Amino acid sequence: MIAGFCSLAAAELVSALVRPEAGPVTAVGGAVIDRSPAALKEFAVRHFGTGDKLALELGIVVLLAVFAMAVGVLALHHRRTGSAAVLLFGAVGAVAAVGRPEGSAPDALPSVVGAAVGAGVLFALTGRLTTAPPRPPAPASGSGSGSGSGSGEAYRAFDRRGFVITAAVATAVSAGAGLLGRRLTSSVQAGATASRHDLVLPVPDSPAPAVPAGTGLDIRGLSPFFTPNKDFYRVDTALVVPRLDAAGWRLRIHGEGVARPLTVGLHDLLRREIIERDITLACVSNEVGGPYIGNARWLGVRLADLLREAGVRPPSAGGPADQLVARSVDGMTIGTPVEAVMDGRDAMLALGMNGEPLPFAHGFPVRMVVPGLYGYVSACKWIEDIELTTFDAYDAYWVRRSWAQQAPVKTESRIDTPRSLASPKPGTVPVAGVAWAQHRGISRVEVRVDGGEWHTARLAAADNRDTWRQWVWEWPATSGRHTLEVRATDGTGATQTGRRAGTVPDGATGRHSVVVDVS
After folding, report:
1. Under a CB-based contact definition with an 8 Å cutoff, are residues 191 and 23 in contact?
2. Which of 229, 413, 433, 462 is the one with CA 20 to 30 A from 268?
3. pLDDT of 76-86, one tens digit each?
4. Dihedral angle of Cα 230, 235, 239, 242, to the nearest 10 degrees
């Protein structure tokens, strides 16, 4: 265990000099995420929510502890073999780090150095436990009937003082190295933090229309119309949130049908026409009635304008590329239909969220936002590259893992209050929630009790067709256990289906329901 701690501490220090994502726990965790089947990913999101990454990292640390103890037992009997096993595990970490989409040869260094330190500490500590030659038999006592303690077997000599000193020194030095690594990482990230703090968002050239009165219903338990940044859902594969310095950020636009490749920085974007829009984002991993949806006011630059400047034409205008592949600094690839980006909707490169620069966890300094599409085919965070290609030529990250190439947001609704298993009193009970069908809007919401007739809910005022819409139905509740069910109809007249389907391959379907006990 001491050797394992020393190994991780040394790796922490080296990863601070290379990059934090190259640490062995993060690298192995990322490799596990990349190779996990879709069903396992959905299980993690469903049961751990936004804490799925913490659960994975804790699981890796537990496995490392078990591995360390097993190697320790092995080293007591086979000293060199035990140390070699540590080196072998370091090789696994190195391969995982280099094999990441954004990996490079230097990323192997934290795992290699950490393994070398761990192997050396283990070899030194087990050296304090030595197998001595057999003791000679003890002389027989007077009658010759006693055999004494010298049976001729090998015995293990414990150099207690040497072991304690070696362990203490190794632990102290490693703890110092680990703390130094943390300090170095923090100092490197301080520049990114300062760049976000110093970024002054411009006044939009095209501000969002004023939110109509009555958009937000004053009902306890109902989700607010705008989701605070701290409460906005986060579903991605980044075990370490990238922290980019705005001054050094660049975006490259290139590929098929790009007549004039572009490379732009943040200040280049700030000099362009800035738009402000209210847009609801939803994750394809959201179960029926799930929490992975949020509404925000976004500030940014129209992506279609940049593409036209680069000479890109949509397929409907004869352009050869039908897919825009956005790449993140962490290696994530997201494929978006070029037609959707250029069809007039407010697809943007966003740099502001709810009146402040993007939080690091939500893509600072720049991310993509495309109304009407699930995040896995539109909302690339920490974006650094846009390549124009075709869906036939390239499968993005999630498509290679059983998800659909294209995924418009489905018409959905959710009951926020009363909560499932709540116990309201008989009488008038407000049943309220949100409904969404981005880029189509919501025209009607209905609620029914115990499978009976549908009742039309009162809709809050609509902001625009790209945001969710609140609703409420005053239920004359009677005593007993009841099931409340909701459905929505979008702006095209299509009503939410009652057919239950899971999230894979292109989003869950079905109607949200809650069971309450009126008493």
Report:
1. no
2. 229
3. 889 999 999 99
4. -60
